[in-house]
Design goal:
single chain; eight-stranded mixed sheet; alpha/beta; about 260 residues; globular; Rossmann fold; 11 helices; about 20% strand
Length: about 260
């Protein structure tokens, strides 16, 4: 994978297609490969005429692994995404994020609104504002010596996922400490770019999509039917809704 330096940290990325740019920011414990390529998102976007750009967040995938929790505040990870746009000489892009990636996308839009044309936030509803209460449970699961030592359902889900993807569990545990920092409601109201908020109907982790969309000045909500947090990512109805949202907002590839 190609890589670049963001504030001295090596960040890996990949680019697919040759149309209008869409930056794809993955969720916690995942990577560009797992979140966007294996789920068919990059193929879907390229076939629709877009240029799909995946980033491996710090501590994930092929990017540098860090062990200081302070390094994983979403505002800092948002700067990695901004730096990637700079590296690729992209002034403005559509920004997709899933779960933690949606939180990063929100902080990016807040800090650099001129860089974001449109946002699509999957797997992140009102808990962007309210936060989540199971971080300690997940950290303990990631640091447990064996999976058999993990008894909680949520902890086991994250531990199994980290083991399957070959993630650096110590780096993920550090990331979990600060990456879920909530965004104040007043700051959400300042994100005045079109945003589609999409969560699964059975997603108990994200919080309600409509509750977050109502706070955003240009927010729309979509419920991914019959999906929980882990199974919403590559859902076909989510892809259809995202493409339709881009079309409604006038962000479509030029026809040749």
């Amino acid at each position: 994978m190609p890589a670049f330096q963001s504030d001295g940290i090596e960040i890996a990325y990949e680019v697919f297609g040759d149309g209008p740019p869409i930056l794809l920011i993955h969720g916690f414990g995942s990577s560009g490969l797992v979140n966007w390529i294996e789920t068919g998102w990059t193929d879907t976007l390229v076939e629709a005429g877009y240029r799909a750009i995946t980033i491996d967040n710090r501590g994930h995938g092929q990017s540098a692994k860090l062990y200081d929790p302070a390094a994983y505040h979403p505002s800092k990870m948002a700067e990695d995404s901004r730096a990637l746009l700079d590296h690729l000489k992209i002034d403005r892009a559509v920004v997709f994020g899933y779960s933690m990636g949606a939180r990063i996308a929100a902080f990016l839009a807040l800090a650099h609104p001129v860089r974001v044309r449109v946002g699509v936030w999957g797997g992140m509803g009102i808990n962007l504002v309210t936060g989540l209460a199971d971080s300690d449970e997940i950290i303990a699961a990631l640091l447990a010596q064996h999976l058999s030592d993990v008894k909680s359902r949520t902890g086991r889900q994250f531990r199994i996922f980290a083991d399957r993807t070959g993630a650096d569990k110590e780096a993920l545990a550090a990331c979990m400490v600060t990456s879920r920092t909530p965004m104040p409601r007043a700051d959400v109201r300042r994100i005045d770019v079109p945003v589609l908020v999409a969560t699964g109907s059975d997603d108990t982790m994200a919080g309600a999509a409509h509750a977050l969309a109502e706070i955003l000045p240009q927010g729309e909500a979509f419920t991914i039917p019959g999906r929980d947090h882990m199974r919403s990512t590559g859902d076909p109805t989510f892809k259809e809704a995202a493409l339709a949202f881009l079309a409604r907002r006038g962000y479509v590839p030029r026809q040749t």
